[in-house]
Design brief:
The complex is a heterodimer of chains A (about 120) and B (about 140).
Chain A (H helix, E strand, L loop, with lengths): L3 E8 L2 E10 L3 H15 L4 E12 L1 H16 L3 E5 L3 H9 L7 E3 L2 H7 L2
Helix pairs in contact in A: 1-2
Chain B lengths: L2 E9 L5 H15 L3 H22 L7 E9 L2 E7 L26 H8 L2 E6 L5 E8 L1
Antiparallel strand pairs in B: 1-2, 2-3, 3-5, 4-5
Helix pairs in contact in B: 1-2, 2-3
The chains are: A alpha/beta (about 120), B alpha+beta (about 140).
């Protein structure tokens, strides 16, 4: 089984990536990077990462979230996060990145927040 | 169990980080550390082993990373040794400084220090760096 499974769906003009597994150095981080870069190449610039199924993330995974955020912003798009687990929320708080990312508890709230 | 030691020798490729994580998960349980500490200890070990492989050994597969777990009473100690050129953790900038927030790397040591009670770097006389981390519970 892959370290990180990513399922893509469309909600209006927002692309939702439902992620399940671990975002850690190697396979997990690469899978996230590839998915986001591919969406940008396809012109899909409003991206919502549903992290409900992500039970573990390391510093490489955190770095990949930052890298995705920067890449999407550079293309004039928006990245938002959905359904952070408590551990992931704690990690983003500790690293002070919760002030950088837009994170939402419900998909409805997140979708409304995209302009 | 109150006294126990486990030693692992891993090749310097990223896939082996998972082997260290699996080993520490079992060790934490056998050592009697509470579940609340397990996440942070595993995180610290993953980060230390990743640093040893990537920054220490430069992913040279001819070089190995050694991980030694010790359990003494209510204390779990992990030492991660590489065969690299040496490393000065003082050169790593604070990743929570606003100027560094958007950097895509440089958070590993910060997370190790966050989740462990002590983190100490030692230059090994035979070459390479060892990082010793202790968690009390």
């Amino acid at each position: 089984m892959a370290e990180l499974n990513i399922r893509e769906r469309q909600a209006g003009d927002v692309t939702v990536l439902d992620m399940d597994g671990r975002i850690t150095i190697g396979e997990g981080s690469v899978a996230l990077r590839s998915a986001v870069r591919r969406l940008l190449e396809e012109g899909k610039k409003k991206i919502l990462l549903n992290l409900a199924g992500v039970g573990y993330i390391d510093s490489s995974g955190i770095g990949e979230l930052v890298s995705s955020y920067t890449a999407i912003n550079k293309e004039g798009g928006q990245l938002k996060l959905l359904s952070l687990t408590q551990k992931l929320q704690d990690l983003l708080t500790i690293t002070k990145l919760l002030t950088v990312f837009d994170a939402y508890d419900t998909e409805a709230e997140a979708l409304t927040a995209f302009k | 169990m109150t006294e126990q030691t486990t030693r692992l020798v891993l090749p310097s490729h990223i896939e082996a980080v998972a082997d260290a994580a699996a080993a520490v998960t079992g060790f934490i349980r056998d050592c009697g550390a509470p579940d609340t500490a397990a996440f942070g200890i595993e995180m610290a070990v993953r980060e230390a082993v990743t640093n040893a492989m990537v920054h220490g050994n430069q992913e040279d597969e001819a070089k190995s990373v050694e991980v030694v777990f010790n359990c003494h009473g209510n204390e779990l100690e992990v030492e991660v040794r590489d065969q690299g050129e040496g490393f000065n953790p003082a050169n790593v900038p604070d990743p929570t400084d606003p100027a560094n927030l958007m950097k895509t790397s440089g958070r590993g040591i910060f997370l190790m220090r966050t989740f462990m009670d002590d983190v100490e770097y030692v230059h090994r006389p035979e070459g390479g760096t060892a990082v010793r981390m202790t968690k009390r519970f």
